[in-house]
């Protein structure tokens, strides 16, 4: 009895196991939007050595199947930009561009529940992978949406471009920055651009109309060196510490606005100390009876698009690093706050921008809702395009999804991914059918 029971149990288990592995294999073999997303995610494009050849060849295959023309442009050797195009019927109208980046940040495999480059899909539909949210989802959704539009017989009035750029995670300097400044970019005659956004834990989709601009500031103090026992004015350390105090006070006033609920984090100027460098090194640390002649500190500043860059620099020159206290300053990075026409670098989200209205309606037509438009806390490649005076919205349609950008266990739910395709179908068809606005700059 016991033996037959055991055999019977083993038999049942073997059936369950074979059914499970069959469905797993089937899932792998099928060619669906989800499996194509998984394949794209499995191509490891993590820094410090992203493979740019493999994702481009994957995307070129997809583009060929869908019937898009393609072009690869290389401004820096080994860092290609892929541009796919669907020609519109009216070539005189400015075109539209959908951008995403090819690279992603590294992942510490051992801290993930599923390997970060396996794109494992759980039984309840969560696809775990580095890049699932940032931003390989949109890179595939653009193509899937176009594929569906083509199969429905849709033809665009305006030309649609899709760009896949390298190096975004390193600041975009060898990617979008060079592309946006090129004649190839100018020749696209862009009227409107969409780029990546961020997930939203709530029901609404988030949308970004601007970003804070980074300034990386180094302040430096010099003074007469002296004995550690002597009290005297104008030592380098004393001068630097005075500035550190002033900067901390400024930081507090900005942070207080956030704490009091008067402003969002992205609406203030943040200034955070990132390093301090001073002292005279000795064999076991630092010389303790000597006041050094040099001291410096590094700060990461992020400025809201409406911040006044001249006023900020005046504050730095007169209060944070004044020459009267033997101080100097340099910027390691100093992003622009004004576009090529002298306007704050942000995309209008009112009646003055018809693209905003069309985009919003297109999202709502799919039953989606938009949260209050935001300024992004950090930066994306959008800033290089906005700086050219071209309107850009940052948008990745991921509602009911925790924000896991650059985090362990980054995932996207399959149904959220599929909904995103539907949203882009609506957005791409509406934007590419828009007849107005002939000028590039609004
Ligand atoms: Zn990104």
UniProtKB/TrEMBL annotation:
<feature type="signal peptide">
    <location>
        <begin position="1"/>
        <end position="18"/>
    </location>
</feature>
<feature type="binding site">
    <location>
        <position position="406"/>
    </location>
    <ligand>
        <name>Zn(2+) 2</name>
    </ligand>
</feature>
<dbReference type="GO" id="GO:0006520">
    <property type="term" value="P:amino acid metabolic process"/>
</dbReference>
<keyword id="KW-0862">Zinc</keyword>
<dbReference type="GO" id="GO:0046872">
    <property type="term" value="F:metal ion binding"/>
</dbReference>
<dbReference type="InterPro" id="IPR002933">
    <property type="entry name" value="Peptidase_M20"/>
</dbReference>
<feature type="active site" description="Proton acceptor">
    <location>
        <position position="168"/>
    </location>
</feature>
<feature type="active site">
    <location>
        <position position="103"/>
    </location>
</feature>
<dbReference type="InterPro" id="IPR010159">
    <property type="entry name" value="N-acyl_aa_amidohydrolase"/>
</dbReference>
<feature type="binding site">
    <location>
        <position position="134"/>
    </location>
    <ligand>
        <name>Zn(2+) 2</name>
    </ligand>
</feature>
<keyword id="KW-0732">Signal</keyword>
<feature type="binding site">
    <location>
        <position position="101"/>
    </location>
    <ligand>
        <name>Zn(2+) 1</name>
    </ligand>
</feature>
<dbReference type="GO" id="GO:0005737">
    <property type="term" value="C:cytoplasm"/>
</dbReference>
<protein>
    <recommendedName>
        <fullName>Peptidase M20 dimerisation domain-containing protein</fullName>
    </recommendedName>
</protein>
<dbReference type="InterPro" id="IPR052083">
    <property type="entry name" value="Aminoacylase-1_M20A"/>
</dbReference>
<dbReference type="GO" id="GO:0004046">
    <property type="term" value="F:aminoacylase activity"/>
</dbReference>
<dbReference type="Pfam" id="PF01546">
    <property type="entry name" value="Peptidase_M20"/>
</dbReference>
<feature type="binding site">
    <location>
        <position position="196"/>
    </location>
    <ligand>
        <name>Zn(2+) 1</name>
    </ligand>
</feature>
<keyword id="KW-0479">Metal-binding</keyword>
<feature type="binding site">
    <location>
        <position position="134"/>
    </location>
    <ligand>
        <name>Zn(2+) 1</name>
    </ligand>
</feature>
<feature type="binding site">
    <location>
        <position position="169"/>
    </location>
    <ligand>
        <name>Zn(2+) 2</name>
    </ligand>
</feature>
